[in-house]
Amino acid sequence: MVMFDTLNRRLLPSYGCDWTHTPNFQRLAKRSVTFDNAFIGSMPCMPARRELHTGRYNFLHRSWGPLEPFDESAPAILNENGVYTHIATDHYHYWECGGSNYIQSYRTHQTCRGQEGDAWRPSVADPVIPPVVAPRRNNEMWRQDWVNRQYINEEKDWPQYRTFDAGLSFLEKNWKEDNWFLQIETFDPHEPFFAPQKYHDLYKHEYKGKHFDWPLYAVVEETPEEVEHLQFEYTALLSFCDAQLGRVLDFMDDHELWDDTLLIVNTDHGFLLGEHGFWAKVAPPFYNEVAHIPLFIWDPRCEKKDVHCDALVQTIDLPATLLEFFGIPLPDTMQGHPLRDTLASNVPVREDALFGVHGGHINLVNDRYIYMRAPPSDENRPLFNYTQMPSNMRNMFTNEELKEAQMVEPFSFTQGCPLMKIPSVGMKVKRIIPMSDLLFDRTADPLQENPIHDSEIEAKLQKRMIELMRENDAPPEQYERLGLKVE
């Protein structure tokens, strides 16, 4: 598995883009099945990775957090069944408080430091920061990123390059062996969009303004020149990712790994680069630029390549696909589906799917519509986190939060384990627009520019949303929070 963070579908050639320099993504598409209907499940980074382990949604029950003790992790299951698992990654959230237990589920793990605000290189003195667009004032992560950049000069210094070096080192040593799973996972092309100069040079983009490679999660207030510049900063980093992907494809070519090796190239989510008047993710609704994601899979058993698949699939299907490939039964708690038959003959695995973030819209997608259900009240309550691991992205829950905790009965997927029920602060990112219901016709309006209003369609989609929430054992207050009438 080669996993990128924040890989934008619309900027890849197999999804219609004709101006980015991504020859290896083109090459990948010719060697694999390209999924045209892949969607996120839980947002953002660690909730998506919990899905990648457990094969079930995270966002209905808790926010960003660790792998729970009761979770049935696909890498851990592979280990238990004689498959050697290894991860090489620079995704620094794995070694923060809220990323506990993920990389430890692999037999071995190799980490490469230095991405974004990773607390990597020490410096008591403040770094020199050039004049920038949209600076993050008094932000330690912002300061640390500029400290880290002082140690990243040549291409080989970049965390992404070192991550692929580590993954290729595993392959060099082990490619002749059977029964292994390697996950090469890079934080790129996540912001900040920081790449070696030679990848910027591919685009011959002229810009003379302030430094700008890291947008705020906010409404676009920058000039058109600044918006265009940031988009080129992203594509330079995308081309850097493409080059590293090419190193893996070269290895597979040189060692004939296509004969017996499953290859998955995926991402957790996309990113708004000014579309709909927004930057980034989480704060605005999950438009297609974020929710509709790229996915490529090569399965040597069916040998399907250079074809597109329109089946509706999600991240929760990937752990199920891994277990099935090695002939391992899926645990009862896993709700994703193996994609073997989908790859071979486009067999559908679902008609509709949910996606969202804890405390945000709950969204439903099918082949015709995307429906975004918002809470009718700005209070966005009631809302709780259910967990045995009370931590957020970088910190444990506060004493004030934990004083409100109750022990409650297990859910169907918690292996009989009770949980702490803790009042949630909900969306910590300040809402930049009021949350409201949105309905889009995917066929007539693929760019989601014209929301429609049809009470009959909404009623049908609400009914199906309730059914899918029940299948996922959603807590009762989620229905109340969204004003969904449960019969």
Describe this structure in words.
This protein is an alpha/beta fold and 487 residues long. It has an eight-stranded mixed sheet with strand order 5-4-6-1-7-11-2-12, with helices on both faces. It has a four-stranded antiparallel sheet with strand order 14-15-16-20, covered by helices on one side. The chain has a three-stranded mixed sheet with strand order 10-3-13. Helix 3 runs parallel beside helix 9. The model has no long low-confidence stretch (mean pLDDT 96).
Q: What would you say about this model in short?
A:
This protein is α/β, with parallel strands linked by helices. It contains 13 helices and 20 strands.
Give short descriptive properties of this protein.
487 residues; alpha/beta; 4-stranded antiparallel β-sheet; 20 strands
Number of helices: 13
Distance between the termini: 43 Å
Report mean pLDDT, rounded to a whole number.
Answer: 96
The assigned structural class equals alpha/beta
* Helix content, binned percent: 25-40%
Which parts are unreliable, with pLDDT below 50 for 5 consecutive residues or more?
Answer: none
Main sheet: which strands, in order across? 5-4-6-1-7-11-2-12
User: Quick one: how many beta strands?
Assistant: 20
Main β sheet profile = 8 strands, mixed
Strand proportion, as a percent range, falls in 15-25%
The radius of gyration is: 22 Å
Outline type:
globular
